[in-house]
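Hey, weird one. I pasted the FYVE-type zinc finger domain-containing protein sequence into the form twice and got a warning about non-standard characters only the second time. First submission, copied straight from the form history:
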Amino acid sequence: VGRLVERLENMRRNALGRGPSQCLLCGDRFGILGAQKARCVDCRKHVCQKCAIDTFNIKHR
């Protein structure tokens, strides 16, 4: 459990995105040719679907 908490804290600390046009966690741009948006349940910020799945999996292990 400790490793999962540490991983989630690292994701928060290393957030790259700025604003609603980029994923908060990885910095990928959203758009027709870019990543699709999802809203983080915890912080209510936009993340890409890949990061949304990663954070969901961390919380439910």
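That's the output from the first submission. The warning seems to come from a hidden character in my clipboard, not from the data itself. Residues 1 and 39 are 24 Å apart (CA to CA).
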